[in-house]
Amino acid sequence: MPERRYRVLSWIAIAMAVVTVGWMLAEYLDVAGQYPGRIAYREGNRAFLDGRYEEALEKYRDALALDEQNVYAAEGVARSLQRLRRHDAALAAFDAALAIEPEFAAGIANRGILLDTMGRHEDALKAYQSALVLDPDLSDGMHWIDRLLYNVQVRPPTVEDRMRYLEEQLALPEHRRVLVRPMEDLLQRPYER
């Protein structure tokens, strides 16, 4: 009897593996046909998360060439340029992404992070406020599962954290303001899909 159970369970496991692989392959092929640029976009995300920003930029541009309305690829271009410290080009890329979808909250938040980095703190504050009005969930920040997967041990500041800080600092007299905190600012991460 135990041997028969073992055989049945083995066949079930094999069938599940075959179905899973088949489903993944079908999805991969279907995605390639239904959503032009989706594969390049995913490759761009992998490169971005690995810190290979030039490669990510290239993949996001490939995705955008296949689908000019892909706001996520357009925003990926902007995030990559931001990480490469090409701030003016990144700002133009964020504007292009937001022209595709003006109420893309994560794009607005990431544009705010760029403006903050560029020293345009009042504009950054407005961007953070707008992003949080459009998507209050941005105040949650990085999910604990993502922190675990990407080995982020310290909780990065959220858009809301930075917004509150800027509000406090901009309310102070100009000579008492501390708008740049290098260590904390390095921890702030862009939001990606």
What is the gist of this entry?
With 193 residues, the chain is an all-alpha fold. The protein has 10 helices and no strands.
Walk me through what this model shows.
By secondary structure, the chain is mainly alpha-helical. The chain has a domain at 103-193. It contains 10 helices and no strands. Helix 4 packs parallel to helix 6 (105-117), helix 5 (87-100) runs antiparallel to helix 6 and helix 7 (121-134) crosses helix 9 (159-171). It is elongated and about 80 Å long. The protein starts with a helix and ends in a 6-residue tail after the last helix. The model has no long low-confidence stretch (mean pLDDT 86).
Identify the notable features of this structure and list them briefly.
mainly alpha, elongated, 193 residues, 72% helix, 10 helices
Helices, strands, pairings?
Layout: H1 2-34, H2 38-49, H3 53-66, H4 71-83, H5 87-100, H6 105-117, H7 121-134, H8 144-149, H9 159-171, H10 182-187
Helix pairs in contact: 2-3, 2-4, 3-4, 4-5, 4-6, 5-6, 6-7, 7-9
